[in-house]
Recover the amino acids of this structure.
């Protein structure tokens, strides 16, 4: 049995066809040399933004530091937002303490993050919020060591660098499901 399309379906199809034809006409009117905004990025400029550190430590830079060295930098550049002992402040998250088993859970670096390299990566790219990427690699290693020390993950004199950081065992390292194993 032959069924006719409802009127609104025919109108919709006609509208889509009309828009398609109109857009082809608009594309034909574009200038041969469209306006260029910005400038091409160079490999050297791109390297400044290629800062991602993998969970296994791949892409960690040179540098090193201890918690003892990081304590002074923390108090100068981090304590105003995160508190003198990492307890957090108004509008800024706590870095230490916390638990995933409380309701609601308090997710901090030590209670939640499965990889120490995530802390290094985040601090390096985003901190301090008023001047991201302003810390040297050595300062980032020192701050990372200090925050890990506040959690009791590393000793105050433990030297954190691109070789030792990936070996740091975070308290919640087994709290996630490894989907790559499936």
């Amino acid at each position: 049995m032959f069924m006719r399309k409802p009127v609104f379906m025919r109108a919709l199809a006609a509208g889509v066809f009309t828009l398609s034809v109109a857009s082809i006409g608009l594309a034909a009117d574009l200038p041969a040399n469209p306006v260029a905004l910005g400038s091409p990025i160079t490999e050297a400029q791109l390297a400044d933004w290629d800062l991602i550190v993998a969970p296994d430590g791949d892409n960690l830079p040179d540098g090193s530091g201890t918690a003892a060295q990081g304590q002074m930098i923390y108090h100068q550049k981090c304590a105003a937002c995160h508190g003198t002992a990492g307890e957090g402040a108004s509008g800024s998250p706590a870095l230490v303490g916390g638990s995933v088993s409380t309701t609601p859970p308090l997710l901090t670096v030590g209670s939640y993050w499965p990889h120490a390299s995530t802390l290094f990566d985040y601090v390096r790219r985003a901190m301090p919020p008023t001047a991201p990427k302003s810390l040297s690699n050595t300062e980032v290693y020192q701050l990372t060591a200090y925050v890990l020390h506040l959690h009791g993950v590393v000793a105050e004199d433990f030297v954190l660098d691109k070789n030792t950081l990936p070996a740091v065992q975070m308290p919640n390292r087994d709290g996630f499901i490894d989907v790559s194993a499936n």
Observations:
- The chain has a mean pLDDT of 83.
